[in-house]
């Protein structure tokens, strides 16, 4: 089950599953992101056949014998995705060293173990995607996936149209390079301006830092969309599952690759939306042929 990092790949038979990094496999099984799994290993919470794992530099060929916090790791369920309307005042982490309330403290108890797709900081609100699949979360977060994050932003200060337009060329703030950002003014109310902001990267506190560099102090930030998924009318603090059809329509090709690439995945095939049954048009009602009786004679066929 466990393979050394230096193992010669040619020694594996074609029938055997390819060795996989333990952090990647456990992320696929929904334990957490790869970084979170590595942290669990550092804390001594991951064991293989009863022995604590000391390093994430480990390849495995199955989940058999692996436990996290004393509980066996099970094969991954089919990927699922939820929308969550995050309120202000919650941190997006499973455990906060400062003891602050977290997003995961406020989720309904019927949800399986989920992780967030990216983060929203303490004072940000709006759409936060949640999934039971760590590999899917990682793919959605990657800039090369190309998904646009959209925000409604209220900021104190004078919104200079020329400076906002210049953000489309990218920005450098305190030595950090930010990719192009689309920012337009929706309306001005007193000393505040409401902006529509769109970006593809999503670095830590990116919107706040970039707008601060052009004299705008963000005092409210609401994410309204992440790729094809939108906040819509979801109430603050509410959770709504995205249908399998919508999920696979948006991520089907990648999900299919995940299902076949990881030892943590279930063996069943991922659904193919193109093969799902479509509603057939209604046919006109046709009454059955019936026999009619004449008043004084035999039955007469219609």
From TrEMBL:
Residues 1-20, 269-302 are annotated as: Disordered. CDD domains: S4. Keywords: Isomerase, RNA-binding. Signal peptide: none annotated. The keyword Endoplasmic reticulum does not apply. Residues 20-79 form the RNA-binding S4 domain. Its EC number is 5.4.99.-. Residues 277-291 have a biased composition (Basic residues). Residues 7-20 have a biased composition (Basic and acidic residues). It catalyses: a uridine in RNA = a pseudouridine in RNA. The keyword Cell membrane does not apply. Pfam families: PseudoU_synth_2, S4. It comes from the Bacteria. Belongs to the pseudouridine synthase RsuA family. This is Pseudouridine synthase.
């Amino acid at each position: 089950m466990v393979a050394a990092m230096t193992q010669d790949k040619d020694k594996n038979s074609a029938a055997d599953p390819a060795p996989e990094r333990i952090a990647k496999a456990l992320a696929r099984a929904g334990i957490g992101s790869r970084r979170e799994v590595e942290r669990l290993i550092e804390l001594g919470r991951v064991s293989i056949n009863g022995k604590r794992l000391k390093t994430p530099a480990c390849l495995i060929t199955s989940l058999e014998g692996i436990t996290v916090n004393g509980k066996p790791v099970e094969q991954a369920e089919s990927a699922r995705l939820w929308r969550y309307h995050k309120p202000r005042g919650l941190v997006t982490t499973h455990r906060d060293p400062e003891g602050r309330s977290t997003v995961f403290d406020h989720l309904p108890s019927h949800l399986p173990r989920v992780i967030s797709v990216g983060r929203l900081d303490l004072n940000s609100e709006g759409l936060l995607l949640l999934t039971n699949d760590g590999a899917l979360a990682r793919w959605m977060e990657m800039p090369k996936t190309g998904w646009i994050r959209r925000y409604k932003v209220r900021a104190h200060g004078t919104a200079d149209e020329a400076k906002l337009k210049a953000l489309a060329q990218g920005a450098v703030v305190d030595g950090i390079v930010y990719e192009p950002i689309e920012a337009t003014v929706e309306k001005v109310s007193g000393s505040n301006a409401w902006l529509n902001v769109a970006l593809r990267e999503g670095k830590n506190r990116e919107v706040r830092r970039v707008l601060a560099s052009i004299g705008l102090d963000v005092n409210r930030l609401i994410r309204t969309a992440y790729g094809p998924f939108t906040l819509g009318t979801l109430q603050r603090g509410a959770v709504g599952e995205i249908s399998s059809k919508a999920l696979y329509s948006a991520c089907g090709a990648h999900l299919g690759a995940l299902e076949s690439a990881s030892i943590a995945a279930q063996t069943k095939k991922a659904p193919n939306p193109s093969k799902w049954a479509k509603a057939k048009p209604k046919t006109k009602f046709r009454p059955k042929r019936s026999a009619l009786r004449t008043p004084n004679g035999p039955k007469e066929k219609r």
